[in-house]
């Protein structure tokens, strides 16, 4: 009972950041289908068995993969049949557009994140796999799919997950509840820095991937990726499943990293394996900073990467004498210590901006509370 209570309260706590962020239709429709179409094709897909391939970077992680396979304790969505294999049991040469585990593992340099992998050519949702098996997997494990047929977006949206997308979820734990809501910012930052780093390393044009607060990735005005965080709280630990969807190679219906590179006259194509390993290298570094020093040392880089410095937004203010709220324009300055938007009114008053919980576009439904 205690666990359930805490779980509920933590979901409420996290929903401060989650529930508002993806209730707007304009962008999410680009990636989301109507529920009925999605359900029909997901039902057909769920009839075919899913193949899940397990591997690890080190010998002991490979040994863990063997024991996990033998114990057959992995779970996957109820109605889906699946078969588990070890990477060593598969043909060495993966198919052209399949995620190449060897290429990925060879370039990964982390101590914890991304070292144990579950890969599948097609599965319902990587997020479901890591959430359902959270306690069976080593912390930092990643599930990667080439295609999802029940991909989940925020706010109950479905997430279009065709081939060419980077689709991954990984596990992590935290003790300090104050910094848990900031994890999604660190994930976004790790991804933008990974893409920048790969561009520099390979001498290709820099892609201007930016963070649309709180957890979207934008490229040239179009959504190119999104982050999803889910969590439970148990024995004083937050167990967090992080999902990342990034349009690497499929340029419909918006854009992708590689189609923007092509527009910049580059023949180079970013590969999901390199993006994933570089992302985990960056994430592990930033996560270490977040845990030991808080978000402060990352703020400058974050503000350089997000889209909102100096943004003018309309906020609503409830007045006891009036039925409808009054609207005021404020200027975004940065983030408050709790991870909300810090803004300043034209009269110099500082305030923290919260979502109203109803608006489709977060920046159109802000309520302010005054700061001392
Ligand atoms: O709504 C958003 O913008 C967040 C979308 C997150 C999608 C990713 S794709 C990999 C992982 N598995 C899922 O089912 N969803 C997340």
Automatic annotation (TrEMBL):
The keyword Metal-binding does not apply. One of its GO terms (cellular component) is cytoplasm. Pfam families: BPL_C (PF02237), BPL_LplA_LipB (PF03099). The keyword Ligase applies. Residues 102-291 form the BPL/LPL catalytic domain. PROSITE patterns: BPL_LPL_CATALYTIC. Keywords: Ligase. One of its GO terms (molecular function) is biotin--[biotin carboxyl-carrier protein] ligase activity. It comes from the Eukaryota. Belongs to the biotin--protein ligase family. This is BPL/LPL catalytic domain-containing protein. It comes from Lactuca saligna.
């Amino acid at each position: 009972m205690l666990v359930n209570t805490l779980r509920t309260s933590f979901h409420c706590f996290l929903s401060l950041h989650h529930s508002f962020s993806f209730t707007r239709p304009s962008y999410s429709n680009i990636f989301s289908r109507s529920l009925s179409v999605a359900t029909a094709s997901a039902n057909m897909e769920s009839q075919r068995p899913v193949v899940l391939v397990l591997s690890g970077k080190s010998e002991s992680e490979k040994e863990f993969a063997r024991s996990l396979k033998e114990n057959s304790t992995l779970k996957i969505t109820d109605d889906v049949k699946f078969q588990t294999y070890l990477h060593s049991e598969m043909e060495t040469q993966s198919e052209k557009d399949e995620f190449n585990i060897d290429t990925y593992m060879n370039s990964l340099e982390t101590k914890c994140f991304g070292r144990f992998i579950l890969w599948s050519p097609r599965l319902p949702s990587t997020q479901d796999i890591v959430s359902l098996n959270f306690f069976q997997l080593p912390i930092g494990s990643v599930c990667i799919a080439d295609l999802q047929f029940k991909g989940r977006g925020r706010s109950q949206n479905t997430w279009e997950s065709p081939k060419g997308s980077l689709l991954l979820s990984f596990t992590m734990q935290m003790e300090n509840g104050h910094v848990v809501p900031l994890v999604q910012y660190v994930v976004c930052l790790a991804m933008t820095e990974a893409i920048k780093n790969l561009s520099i390393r390979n001498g290709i044009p820099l892609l201007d991937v930016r963070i649309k607060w709180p957890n979207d990735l934008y490229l040239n005005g179009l959504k190119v990726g999104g982050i999803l965080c889910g969590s439970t709280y148990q024995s004083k630990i937050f167990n967090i499943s992080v999902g990342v969807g990034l349009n690497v190679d499929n340029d419909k219906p918006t854009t992708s990293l590689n189609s923007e590179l092509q527009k910049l006259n580059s023949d180079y194509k970013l590969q999901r394996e390199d993006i994933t390993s570089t992302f985990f290298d960056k994430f592990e570094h930033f996560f270490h900073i977040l845990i030991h020093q808080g978000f402060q040392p990352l703020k400058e880089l974050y503000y350089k990467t997000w889209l909102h410095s100096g943004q003018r937004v309309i906020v609503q203010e409830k007045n006891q004498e009036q039925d409808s709220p009054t609207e005021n324009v404020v200027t975004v300055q940065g983030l408050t210590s709790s991870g909300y938007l810090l803004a300043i009114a034209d009269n110099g008053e500082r305030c923290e901006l919260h979502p109203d919980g109803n608006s489709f576009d977060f920046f159109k439904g802000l309520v302010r509370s005054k700061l001392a």
